[in-house]
Structures are given as C-alpha cells and as structure tokens.
Amino acid sequence: MAKTANASARRPVAKTPPILFERTQKIISALETALDQKVVTYWNSTNGNICANDVIGLYGVLQSIGRAERLALFIKSGGGSGQSSLRLVNLLRQYAKELTALVPLECTSAATMLALGANKILMGPLAQLSAVDTSLTHDLSPLDKFNDRVAVSQDELQRIVRLWREQATTGTENPFQSLFPHIHPLVIGAVDRASALSIRLCVEILAYHMRDQETAQKISETLNAAYPSHTYPILEREARNIGLNVEAMPDPVNKLLLELNELYSEMGQDANTDFDERNSHDNSILNIIEGLGAQVFFQNDKDWHYRVEERRWVTLNNVSAWRKAEKSAGKLTVSILHIR
C-alpha cells in the first residue's frame, strides 16, 4: 500500500495554460482606438488550424460585439480547411460592410483564403501570405519508407506531365501510363478535383467585395498555380502585384498586434504532461477568437494512452471543448461554450 501511495504522490500535476483575458482585452481596446473601428482576433497555435467549429466560435464573439460599418480582423494561422474559410468570411460579411484583414505574421494556405475576404489587407514587416494550391493524402496515395501515405499535389503532377511531354521521343507516349503504377488514377482525379475546389473557393470569397469576376479569377488561379511551393512566402509587394488591395501596416498597430500575439502564444503554449511512458494528458489551447468583452478558445482536455498490443496512441476521457472567458461581478469566469 505504501508503495502505491508513494507512486501516486509522485504523479505530476497536469499543466494548465494561463487565461490572459484582462491583458488581451486592454490591447484590443487600444487597437480599436488606433484603427477607429471594432476589432476581432482569430489566432491559431502551431497545433491549431482553421476548421468548421471555428464558425460557431466566431459567431459567439460577433453576437457579443454586434454589427458594424467597419471591422478589422487580426489573422494569425497556418491554414486548415478552405471551405471553413469561406464560411468564416460569409459570417463576417453579415456583421460588417467593410472588412480589413490585419496580418502581422503568418497567414498562410486557408488563412490566405480568409484574408481574401477583406476589402483591404494591412501587412506588417513580418507578415506573409502563401499559395493556396492543394495537396492531399488519399486512402490510395503512395506509401513512403515509413509505410505512411504520401501527400500528392496538383503542381507536382502537372510538372511530371509537362516534363514528360517536353522530353518525349515520340508524340504518342502517354505519361499517365507510367504514372498509374505509382499513383492510383483515383488519387490523380481527387487532386484535380481539390485544385478546382480551391480556385472556386478563392473566387467565391473575393466576390464578397470584388465585382470584377475576371480579376477575381486571375488572382485565384495565380494563388493556386503560379508558385513552385505551397509555402512560398507572398510578401507585401508580391501580394500587391497579383492584384490584392494591400497596404503597409502602421507601426503602432503592428506593435500592438505583436504584443497580443505574445499573450496568445503564452495561452497557446504546449500543455502536455507525461505521467509515464504510456500515459499523458493534454490541456493545450489551440484556437482563440476574441472581441472587446468576449473571448472564446478551443482547449484540449484529454488523456493519451499508448496501447502496446496495437502499437498506437489512443485518446481517453476526451472532454475537449470551446470555452468562453468573461468578467462576471468583477471576477474572471471560464465556462463551456456549447456547440451543437
């Protein structure tokens, strides 16, 4: 019994990230004064991404702050679901006639799509957008040396076909006959479909404020096919060259956003606690959405257990959820934000 009690006493306390609501609210208030408009923030940690549930989280914040003629959206994200970006833009446009994207740092992939929904994009010295071309991991994708499925991109396939045709010795050779033994035809079809979806999403998002369909189509195709890397950094000058309404972010605003990012990074720090070699707990905050008077965030709250017989990690006791931080009677309270 004593041995069991000692083992229990040595069990680490699960890490809990801080909720910095009061400090972040002060910065949002200062941003609204500097920009002379309402501000909403959308921030992803390195383990977070744009997903469908974020639409409900954003809706909760927008309901709290109300509609406005002009609204500024701070975006810091590495991407995620482009279809969710379209839904986020659609929701934002119901609450603001004019939307400005504030981009001080990373705003890539599906986050670039989100920024396309703004009438104007303010980019800081450290800001970057990116290409939005699609790569996907299909159930029939090729396997790598670790026996994992490999992501296949449209750009890679197009380059293979183009090089094959340029170097073909006769005009009758078909590159796909040699591709099919390595890449299943259904994978090639799925990648082409995903690429068409990506272009369609960009066109639809731009249409919320851009009336010239030809320009919207050109920008969408450029973002999907003009860059040799999905992570190619599109900086302020390049973003302007492809037709986006981009301006340099004022230094005071950039400084405030970087301070806000530091606070969000502290909230979104790694909060994994290892109990032993087979068991751990994750309390990490992944996504944060905030406006003046309202902050919601998605927080993991789950155990991880390694099943030796299956050689894989599984989750247990998963009560991860969106949470809402607010001031009530002068005290900070955190409650579950229920999403159906």
Characterization of the model:
By secondary structure, the chain is an alpha+beta fold. The chain has helices spanning 2-9, 21-35, 53-65, 82-95, 110-116, 154-167, 175-179, 185-206, 213-225, 236-241, 251-267, and strands at residues 38-44, 68-76, 96-103, 120-123, 129-130, 135-136, 152-153, 233-234, 246-248, 272-276, 279-282, 285-291, 294-299, 302-307, 312-316, 321-328, 331-336. The radius of gyration is 23 Å and the shape is flat. The chain starts with a helix and ends with a strand.
What is the CATH class of the largest domain? Alpha Beta
The arrangement of helices and strands along the chain is: HHEHEHEHEEEEHHHHEHEHEEEEEEEE
- How much helical structure, as a percent, in the residues? 25-40%
Largest sheet, in brief, is: 9 strands, mixed
Measured by DSSP, the beta-strand proportion falls in 25-35%
Question: Poorly predicted ranges (pLDDT <50, ≥5 residues)?
Answer: none
Q: Mean of residue pLDDT?
A: 85
CATH architecture of the largest domain: Alpha-Beta Complex
Head-to-tail CA distance between termini: 45 Å
What multimeric state do the chains show? Answer: single chain
User: What structural class do you assign from the helix and strand content?
Assistant: alpha+beta
The tally of domains stands at 2
The count of DSSP E runs of length 2 or more, i.e. the number of strands, is 17
Number of helices: 11
CATH topology heading of the largest domain: 2-enoyl-CoA Hydratase, Chain A, domain 1
Q: Strand order across the biggest sheet?
A: 9-4-3-2-1-12-13-16-17
How would you describe the shape? flat
Radius of gyration: 23 Å
